[in-house]
Amino acid sequence: MSHYSLFVIRYSLSFALLFTACRPAPPVPLRLEWPTMGTIAAVQCADTAAAPQARDIAQRTFQALDNELSAWNPASTLSAVNAAAGTPQPVAVSSNFATILQTALTYCADTEGAFNPLIGPVMQAWGFNGVPRPIRPADEDLAALLTRTRWHDVHLATGAQTTVRLATPGMKLDLGAIAKGYAVDVAWERLKAAGHTNLLIDLGGNLRALGEAAPERGGWRTGVRNPFQSNALVGKFLMHDGEAVATSGNYERFVEIDGLRYAHIMDGRTGQPVTGMAGVTVIAPDAMTADALSTALFILGPQRGVALLRDRPGCEALWIPDTPDQLTLLATPGFATRLTPVGNTPYRLTVVTGQPD
Ligand code: ADP
Ligand code: MG
Fold this sequence. Notes:
It is built from nine helices and 19 strands. The protein is an alpha+beta fold and 357 residues long. It has two domains: 210 residues, ApbE-like domains (T-fold); 95 residues, ApbE-like superfamily (T-fold, Orthogonal Bundle). The longest helix is centred in the C-terminal third of the chain and has 23 residues. Bound molecules: adenosine-5'-diphosphate and magnesium ion.
């Protein structure tokens, strides 16, 4: 090798090193948070200067939807619909309300009532209405309450005016399993229309990506939480432009009755809190789908859940059963290939395909 070529190699090497050393790391996206809809919302912006405007748009969107959909606010449209249950009087609702309700009723039919937006009276019976000392509802009381969760008794009329009427007294809509996802989609559309190109919206764990973060990052880094250890992850994956992610877990909202914990997701078919599942994470093409599916798949479990995913392209799911001694993950093939383990938490991963064993 001539002196010259040795020189070229040496110099190009040191230039390469110099270049790597000087090249700025991709900017850390700026995350702005605020409380809303009973949880914490955030926007995370690759362009930090765009963050305050993005936050304002998302904040206004979530507040307006909460005013319509909150089960806790007596002035909300949802409260007016519930208060009129059993009367002949239909209540006027917005197109947003109608879209969420229609979608929720479709999931209800598709899951044979396991997912049911009329779960309100059952939630109350189990103490999810802020009572200080919840007691276990009697079986006959639950059976009576299930007569108020018949989804054919919801009359959604679209015409000159969109209205809702709940036919049976005591019926109560609860859109908590789907409303946050829908709100994220509305915010996503508005942010996109306002010219934002690169951010992540987070409404209490309902995420949707716009853009790809930075090219070096290859997407928005997203973690799957370890349900048995707060602040620990079991795995991570990348979210791409337009994708949504939602998680339903048994660890954030629960009531304690006689020393036992009951999570805030009910099986609509029985009126009993779901047991045996710790967390479900769903990737979907939009946030309402991710939100509804995460709750529905939490109730159905992996074996019945894969059937619900069959005709839904772009939807992938990960189930973590409530077995703290043996961390087990069950994932659809598309989720399994995207998931990278984090740290040194050992787990067993099984791929669920929907084919009989
Ligand atoms: P989070 O609201 O914590 O993000 P989910 O999206 O899974 O979690 O929604 C849970 C909420 O869904 C409950 O707090 C309740 O309002 C509602 N819910 C509970 N059980 C059902 C059910 N079987 N069908 C529809 N909604 C339900
Ligand atoms: Mg949900």
